[in-house]
Each structure stands twice: as C-alpha cells, then as structure tokens.
Amino acid sequence: MNRTLIALVEDKPGVLNRVSSLFRRRAFNIESLTVGHTEQPGISRMTIVVDSDRTDAQKVAQNLCKLVNVIRVEDVTERPAVMRDLALIRVRANGGTRSEVMQIVDVFRARVVDVGMDTLMIEVTGTEEKVAGLVEVLQPFGVVEMVRTGRVAMVRGNGFNEQ
Amino acid sequence: MRRTGAQIVWEMVKREDAEVVFGFPGGAIMHTYHPRQEYDIRHILVRHEQGAAHAADGYARASGRVGVALVTSGPGATNLVTGIATAMMDSSPIVCIAGQVPTTVIGSDAFQETDITGITLPITKHNYLVTDVDDLAGVIHEAFYIARTGRPGPVLIDLPKDVQQAETDFVPPEEGVRLPGYQPVGPGDPEAVCQAAALINGAQRPVILAGHGVLISGAMEALRAFAEKTETPVTLTLLGKGGFPESHPLALGMMGMHGAAFANQAIQKADLLLAFGMRFDDRVTGKLEHYAPKSRKVHVDLDAAELNKIVPVDVAILGDLRQVLEQLLPLVEPVSHQEWLAQIDRWRADTRIRDVMNQPENDRLLAPRVIYAIREATQGEAIVVTDVGQHQMWTAQYYHFDQPCPLITSGGLGTMGFGLPAAIGAQVARPDKEIWAIVGDGGFQMNVQELGTVVQERLPLRIALINNNYLGMVRQWQEFFYERRYESTYLLNPDFVRLAEAYGIRSWRVTDPQETHQAIAEARSHPGPAFIEFQVVQEGEEGNVYPMVPAGAALHEMIRRPTVAVEADRSKEG
Fold it and tell me: What is the DSSP string of B183-200?
C-alpha cells in the first residue's frame, strides 16, 4: 500500500539534496517525490509517496523531522485529501485513429494540448488510477512518450496548514 | 564595527564560549588563522586533521561543552571525515570549520577543492556552506546551538576563502535562533508516562538499560532515585558508563557483546526492560529474535527516530530523560524485588568465579590486571579515554566509575586511532584532572603522530599502551571463528618506549606483573606526560576478552571463560 507524506521545508539551497540523501542513506524506497513553492515565501512543500510494504512511512517521517531544514511532516494517508497526478502523453494517432483517440480523451476529461502529423499530445490530471486507466486504453494506439509529475496532495476542509 | 569574515570566526567562537580550537592550517584557511592572536582563544596544533576532530570530540565529552576543529579545504577537510562520523554516532557536540576555495571557483576543480558539504551531509547533524559574509555570524551561532542542544552532534561549516576575506559591519546575532524545523524535546507525553508507570508498578523482574542519554541529559541523580525507589537493577551501555555508580548494589555492570554475563542473563529473563537514553545497538542486543523475549519494554529517548527503530516497545516516550524520570518518580511505587535480586546475585556469583581477577595470579602480564591496577591507583577518579579493541572492552569491564563521568571511547563507530587525540582533547578541557589514555598497539599507531601535540602543548597525559603485538580483537575472532588463522593481524611493532622517548616523553616498559604497580605509581608521580608500555599475553584464554556473545547469537549464548575452577564447580553441580 502507498502512503502519502506532506513535508514543509525551508526553501534553501541543498534541501532537496538533504532529503534524497537521507532516503538513500536509510535505504528508504520512494515511489514519488514532488517539490514546489507554497503560499508562504521561503517555504517549499514536498509530497512524498512511500510504498509501505517496503518502507515504514513512520520512519521516513521521523527521520525527515530530524533534518534541521524540515519544518513539519505529516502522513495524510488516512485523512480526506485530494490527490492528483499530472501526465503528458504523446500517443500515435493518424487520420484513421485520431477521432477515436480524441473520444477517449473526452471520456477521461483530458485535453489535447498539441497535434503533430502522426501524434497527439494529451494532458491529463487526476488520481494515479485515472492516469493509469487512460494510459492503458491508449496503449494499443502506441504511447510514444510519457512524463508524470508524481502525486501532489492537499487535505480537504481546513487543510494541512490549520493543524 | 567593520570586520572581515576571518575576524568574525574568532569573534563568534569566543561569544559561543569556546576557549580552545584544535586545528591545522593550510592555504584556504590561513586567512582565518591570521587574526587569531587578537582574540584570547587557545589554538592546539595537531599533527593530522583527524586528530583535530577527535580532540574536539574528546574535549566535548570531557567538558560538556562544544569542541571546535579548524582545518583547510580539500584534504584538510576530508581528513576530518572519520572524526565527524565518530562524533555523529556517539552524539558528541563538535563544530568543524573547514576552509574552502573561493566562491568564484567552486565547482571548477580548483586546487584543494572538495565538496565537503556534500561529503559530510549524511554524517553531520547539520552543515552549512557560507557564501555571504553577512550570513557568517548567524551561521556560527546556529551551528553551536544545533551541536549542543537536543541529541548533540557534529556541525560542519564550509567557509570559502573570499568569505573569510570579505568585510562587513559585524552585528552580533540575537541570543535566540530562528529554526522553525528544529525543536529539542522537553518532558514526555503524560499519558505515555502513566502507561510506563503502570508497567513499572506491575513488574516482578525489571531491568534498567541506561545509556549515553543519562549523561547527556544530566539524569544521573534522577536515575539513581528512580532505581532505588523501585529497587530496579541498572545495567549500562558502553557509553552509559558513568551514568550510574558501578559499586552501587543495584549496578549490574555493562551489558552486551562483552558485557557482564549476569547482566545479559538478567536482561534475557527480565519481565520489564526500561531503556533509558540508549538505542538498542546490535552490540547490546545480540540476535534480535531472541532478545529479552519475555519482557515488556519501555523506551525513553529524545530522538523520535530511535523509538521502535530496532526493538518494538510497549511504551515509547519521546522526551528529555531527566524530565521524564522526574515525571515518573512520583508515579512509581516503592517496591522490593528481593527474589529477583537474589536470582541476579546467583548469576553474579557465577560471573565472579570466572572473573580473571579471581583466578590465581601467575607470572604472565594480563591486560585486565593492568587496567584494574590503574583503576585502583587512581581510585576510579581519573578521566579514562580508550582506543578501540580488546583493551577498550577490558577498560569498560575493569575500570569502574562511581563518578558521573563518561568513559571517553568510540562506541558507535568503533574508530581505531580515536584514543590518543581524544585524550589530548580531554586533557585540554580538564587540565587539572588526571587523564589516562588506555590504548592498544594497533589503534595507537593510527594516530601516533599526535604524541608531538602532547609534548608541544605540555599536556600531562598518562598513556597506557596495552601491547600484545596483534590487532587483538580481530585475532580473537580468528581464534574463535576462523580456525586460528591469524591472517594479517600480527604487528611487527617499533620499540614503543624509544618512540615515546624520541618525542621527549618519559617512558616505562612493563613485562612482569610485579612491575605493574610501581610503573603506574612512577608515571602518576611524574609531572607528565608519561607513557607505559605493558607487554601483555598475546593469545589464548588469557589474551581474550570474556564473555563474548558471538555475532548472530542471542544475548545469553555467551562464550564464557573456560577455567579449571569453573570446570570443577560444574562437575560438583553434576
């Protein structure tokens, strides 16, 4: 099972390096890690997904907390939260298959963001399951290229910052 | 107040109450060295940067203050690495300041450039690369704060040459620090403390496992009060020595791989383990599957990542040990554990019979007797620093402390070469105290060059070299587990007495047990420094550390000392 951790960290040089160095040093297996700015200047936010069959998420959280530049860590797996992954997918689509691909895109509420001679670039946002579902049905057409951001998460209601 | 970065270093080191810096100059740090004389701070010139890191560590452990090391970039900085890792594993507060090539050439593979910030990332509590002289004072202030608070540890400051040279208006940092992600813990969660108290009040066979945390949090009095009120025997980790008086009736001595057999037996049969400021190192648990199988466990530690890391516990209390013990004390009932203590005394008696000190004396020089003699002569009041290996375990076994004073030794990392430079640091910290460095012939030679520092600084250090011409602990493993094939462990040593005398150190050599006491007495009455080489038994039963829990064995599966007396005793038992 996957567990989702949110970490608020100081936006200082080398902090991502400290976090990734910690994961390597403690042999933690990480499914994904995203990092970006927050509403507060000087503070970045990481969403870390851990495969809890292989790595104890609590140990990840406890060790992250020991880093001086890590301000707060919380496991939000059990809390109601919106979790999203964004993917860009380039899929083969020629005259014969283009309309069929675009119908699938509509069904998944994804968007076509670029059209090439033989390919379409599709942008999809949603849970990882939804993205995986789209990729699965596009596979027969030929997925040429794909990139995913990894999970970002925000707790519903008053949210993470209010705690 | 215009100041250069170099001046700010000394200004801040002084403000942080450091009286002494251990270091070695070089191209990227000489700018910082230049203004030292303007500040009233002592500098100890070591012979190798590793010595500076260990000396700062020894200074910190002997004084309870932060030790400081100052070195140049590149090789100067990388030479610190072993010392930093040693301090990290043993939670020792040191601040290392390393020169760096100018910021303008960082990343260009400049002369003596190395990424010491990157290298030390996993072996420091925190580290800094300072790129702006305006940050320097604040960084040094934070570094000392982080090093000494919470779970202490090493902090490294990577200081480029142009930052040392740059001038700025020096503004002393405010007293407090703004570190939103760093809060040392205080008392424990009252609910968890109550749960622990309930387990304690219901226990029939409790044992306290007291670690380094007792000394770090200053919980010696609280621990004693707790142990006496609940009549709970106390066993110590290697770094926990000094946290509880070893002559106390409730003291069980050291636990673990070379711990007292009766202490290990008590742990294995306990129904409640109280782990106070220790971290269940593999050297104290033996095989985890068979570790204290029938016991409930309470763990108090100030580092959340240590709780449930190795041994799952019934109650984990995150908090400062002294404060947690003060919370527990009114909640626990005064009880008597006569039956349990009587059982432990039976195990203790068996251990005593096997003790080499209770075997008939012969004409061979045995290391345990040497260490016991040093203990007797100093009445247990010296500060003792060891290296790593057999002599270290013998020192832990035979130099008992009743004072709240640590055994200064590399516990977690097991760093050979630690002893001599750490003893230098300890002697600098405590010039009035009698300090004994007890070292083996292998580890001593790893940093033997620091004899030069001892003499140059006129340190009255006493050095006892336990020489068995082997890397003794490895040889012992080879004897037990590797068919007595002494592969690469025999040492063709120099004449150590002449070596020490070449440095100008008064020296003695002891080969006969009859000479032991007199040599120690003479070395003690000499103003120092003084050096004694003890040529001890090299191998076999009298050259091994007993008992020993083999790697991978359970804690009670010890190799015990085979002796005639014991065999006779056994046959009586039938």
Answer: ----SPPHHHHHHHHHHH
Domain annotation for chain B: domains and CATH numbers? 2-169 (3.40.50.970), 190-350 (3.40.50.1220), 365-536 (3.40.50.970)
- If you ran DSSP here, which 8-state letter would residue B524 be given? H
Taking CB atoms and an 8 Å limit, are A62 and B304 in contact across chains?
yes
Q: Of B71, B32, B36, whose CA–CA distance to B55 is shortest?
A: B71
Residue B564: pLDDT band (50, 70, 90) is low
pLDDT tens readout for residues A36-90: 999 999 999 999 999 988 899 999 999 999 999 999 999 999 999 999 999 999 9
Confidence at B248, pLDDT banded by 50, 70, 90: very high
| Of B83, B65, B91, B549, the residue nearest B278 (C-alpha) | B91
A144: distance to nearest CA of chain B, Å? 37
Per-residue pLDDT, averaged over B349-364, amounts to 91
β strands within A29-79, DSSP E: 30-37, 43-51, 70-75
Task: Give the mean model confidence (pLDDT) for residues B399-425.
Answer: 96
Nearest CA among B298, B294, B322, B320 for reference residue B308: B298
In the prediction, which pLDDT does A1 show? Answer: 85
Asked whether the beta carbons of B442 and B389 are under 8 A apart, the reply is yes
Contacts of A51 (CB under 8 A, 6+ apart): A1, A2, A29, A31
CA distances from B171 to A163, B90, B167, B168 (A): 36, 34, 12, 9
- pLDDT above 80 for B148: yes
pLDDT computed for residue B572 by the predictor: 47
Longest dimension (CA), chain A: 57
Helix (H, G, I), strand (E, B) or coil at B177: coil
Two tokens at A90? 């380039």
The reply to whether residue A9 touches residue B126, judged by beta carbons under 8 angstroms, is: no
The pTM of the full predicted model, rounded to 2 decimals, is 0.95
Instruction: Measure the CA–CA gap between B296 and B273, rounded to whole angstroms.
Output: 6
Q: Which chain A residue shows the shortest CA-CA distance from B152?
A: A66
Do the beta carbons of residue B380 and residue B400 sit within 8 Å? Answer: yes
Of B125, B181, B303, the CB nearest to A71: B181
Interface probe, candidates A17, A23, A62, A161, chain B, greatest B C-beta count within 10 A = A62
Please answer whether residues B236 and B244 qualify as being in contact, where contact means their C-beta atoms are separated by less than 8 angstroms.
yes
Could you please report the per-residue DSSP string of B437-495?
Answer: EEEEHHHHTTSGGGHHHHHHTT---EEEEEE-SB-HHHHHHHHHHSTT--TTTB-----
Residues 6+ apart with CB under 8 A from B68: B13, B18, B20, B21, B22, B56, B94, B95, B96, B97
Q: Which of B136, B276, B143 is nearest to B219 (CA)?
A: B276
CB burial readout A77-92, b (16+ within 10 A) else e:
bebebebbbbbebbbb
Tell whether ipTM is more than 0.85: yes
Cα B344 from Cα B261, distance rounded (Å): 10
Chain B residues contacting A, CB < 8 Å? 117-118, 121-122, 125-126, 129, 146, 179-182, 303-305, 307-309
> Percent of chain B, pLDDT > 90?
95
- Find all residues with CB under 8 Å of B264, minimum gap 6, and list them: B255, B256, B286, B547, B549, B555, B556, B558
B566 pLDDT more than 70: no
Which tokens sit at B219? 């919980």
Domains of chain A, with CATH numbers?
2-75 (3.30.70.260), 82-152 (3.30.70.1150)
3-state secondary structure of B238: coil
Q: What is the pLDDT of residue B294?
A: 93
Residue B570: other Cβ atoms inside 10 A: 9
Predicted local distance difference test score (pLDDT) of residue B574: 37
Q: How far is CA B553 from the centre of its chain?
A: 25
- The tokens 């002697």 sit on which residue? B427
Residue the block writes with tokens 């006491």: B517
